[in-house]
Amino acid sequence: MANSPPNLQPRNIGDLYRLASVHYGGMPAFATRTENPDEWLPLSFHELYRKGQALALALAELGLKRQENIAVFADNRVEWIIADCAVQLCGAVNVPRGSDTTDGELTFILKHCGARFCIVENARMLKRVSNVCEKAQLHVQLIQMVDSHQVSSANTIAKLIKTGLELLESNSAICNNIDNNLASLKPDDGFTLIYTSGTTGDPKGVLLSHGNMLAQISHIPIPIHWCDRVLSILPIWHVYERVLEMITIARGACTYYSSVRHFAEDLLRIEPTFMASAPRLWERLHARILQTVANAHPIRRGLFHMACFFSHHYHASVSWLGGHSVREKRPILLLDCLRTVLECFRWSLFLPLHGFFNAAVLERVRLSVGGCLRGTISGGGALPRSIDRFFNAIGIAVLEGYGLTETSPVLAVRRLDCRVQTTVGPMIPETQLRIVDIEMGTPLYPDSGRSDNGRMRKGEIQVRGPQVMREYYNNPEATERAFVDGWFRTGDLGMVTWNDCLRIVGRCKETIVLLSGENLEPGPLEMRLRQSPLIEQCMVVGQDQKNLGALIVPSQDAKTAARDDSELKKRLDQEVRQLISAANGFKSYERIRAIAVLSQAFAVGDELTPLFKLRRHVIEEKYRAEIAALFNTTS
Amino acid sequence: MTTDTILIRPIDQLLLAIMIFVIMFGMGASLRGEDFREALKRPRALLIGFLSQFGLMPLLAFALAILLRLEAPLAVALVLIGCLPGGTTSNMFAYFGRGSVALSVSMTAASTILALLMMPLLLAFYAPRIFARLSSVGVDENTVFVIPHGNIIASLILVLVPVGLGMLLRHFSRPWAKTAEDTAGFAGIVVILYLILTAALRNGRMFIETTPSLYLASIGIGLSGFVFGWGMAWLSRLEPRYRRTISLETGIQNGPIAIAIILLSFRDSIRDEMLWLAILYSTFIVITASIITLIYRKCGQYDWELHRNRVIHLRLFGSDYQAPYPPLLAAADPQSQPLTRKYRQDSPR
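Structure tokens for the assembled complex are given below, as produced in the milestone run.
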């Protein structure tokens, strides 16, 4: 497009904030809701940098040093970004975490990172952190983000900004310190220290450098520019959301802070053009759209299904003709030619039908999610196949990506011009991939000795690239374990398709080995189960057992529909048997023989990571009795 | 075209009449009283639109008729098409072509009412000139016929009655009006398809026998409307999104009105061929408008995104909010000159 914005090339993240202020000036950078949900407050790139600069001066005055760790315990809000800007301008490293962190984790993080300063969101968080500090006898200076219910002894960001602005006005040369600070930062210097809430063990501190983040900003292929409105609902302290906001800043677009609670209205209010989220959100959105359709007039319902049918066929032929159909087998030229002819026919057959129904029916569905969504990224978990297909069919491009906190985070992502379903797209530039046999440790892909180069062979994904972290902070053993010959071990199972796109199969450590020696991945089973309207959440268990069992959290609908617990269990049992059956393509050893119905839902921060992934070890620990009972009754 | 071709049987006439009634009724149901008031808020765009619809379009039709040396009945039919008010489908095309739906709706509403006055005037102005031109280039004098002005006005009024009824329905019941609107949209497609299909089935020869100049006329009138409509709005320095709207509104005419007028006003011997032109126009306009809409969608993207952004900013940040977005850049690619480029800094609030 002739109107794409300038290509910023910052030397570090502080520099990014400065360049954004120079190039985008008065355009809005961030917007937050006020008390009135229809009134939002914008913050321009210029104001952001100015406030960040002032806060940086004040923090430096307090004694914050270059490359020093500073904890930030807060959820998404615009002050968070101002604080981040200030920390980056000081050349310090921030250690972010949200309010759903347990006290134990807070203690661990504060101790481990050795921060002398801690920015907390509000009075409640201030109280928690000061209690934690008292118990652990840590000396941390607290700074509060929001003024309301202010504890008199603590500094607030507003106060510090005021001090900083006064400093700036009295002595304009003082900025030179900041500039010098910035200029001397090296790409390898730390930018942020993120403690993974990981699915296993103690949190590990992932130290990401400016170089890691800059590589992500320039390599992630998402098409946004200054006219875009990006909706943010994921926790900012998670690197996936963080990198997206950094890209948004680099491209001059505006980020709107929404929340899970207000998400549905905000879609209509803000009409976002781009957003990123976890699969759980797409599942919810999918359910909501289907609900609306189900409630509609039968004729409208029929039209909707017809439109989806036409759209599906149209897009299938387009993706074949564009070379983006998923290829699992070695291409054979003659068959490909034949198929191309057939696909051309299908394309011309469905073009007018799709054209009409797309305009008349699907546009209304798209309007129910704001109507402007150009693309969306899904990450932080596997996106169910049917949901992926649904959104692509109604004309909302869902780009599934893959990455870890340790790889800051994106390794591979689908592009708008390369949407190969069932994969997470091609690797992003400068990222090297190899697939390694789990047991032998021998490379399976790339394998120049084989004519297929090792495609479609399953193994552990190992990567090398500018976004991969150098080390876990103060944890050489963990670092040692994470790398092999300079390759980072992701712990995920994957394979490469004939389109050279990566497909994620499961997690090495999640693999359940049954007594019979069968290996299976619980992920696909759980994904299938979760699509049932009766099942809210679930976890499949059965390590070293004869057969599988499942812990199931029933949905509200299921609970209200059943008269008592035994009926509920019977229904769920039926549902599970029906879903995980040979008819649905599951193998006999994948059948779930016993279920336990849990009365309490899994909660974020406890049984779930902030991206709604199961923390299996936590759940196994908590429901040890129930799991044991599962296998006692069946054996 | 042979004169003995029977395009429209009496049963078809009845069907057509019912369909036209439904379509016009649906059109009325989609119009609101506010649309007319809305229209007065952007008088400049509306005036340009008016000039484009009733000044430019008939002139284009006249020029095309002369240029292609069409026979007198066809030439009159073409000018008749040129004088028509805008069609309701133009609103949908304006929506997808990143235009202003409000302007499109108000132009459609205004032109439908004004057509009552303008169409007879324009026909009275152009018809003698068509005959004069044709006889001067040596076309047979016998083809000259009388334009039934009285009939045309009568049929126009007859066509506008269901529009008024539709508006009345909307006044009393919104849901029913919505249903009527949707039904009419569907009916419009059915009518065109039915006419084309019956024509093709009963005498497939018609498509082969239709002269290239007739095809050219039926396609060209819509296309030239799009092009010149855009040009006129561009010359008047209207916003890009108004340019796209006026362009689509100029090219897309209300085909059913033409069909109704021809059915009700002209004698049998020339009626069929005039009708054939109107049907061809109604078919091709859907295709050309779709293509033009796709082009506008692509080219108007930046401008439209800026506009959407502005609308949402005003809605969320207050009505006096202004952000200094760079205006539409000419073909220059900013990627090629990254860091040196300076945009307008903070504008005074």
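Residues 329-349 of chain B have pLDDT under 50 and may be disordered. Chain B has one domain: 10-305. Further analysis is deferred to the final report.
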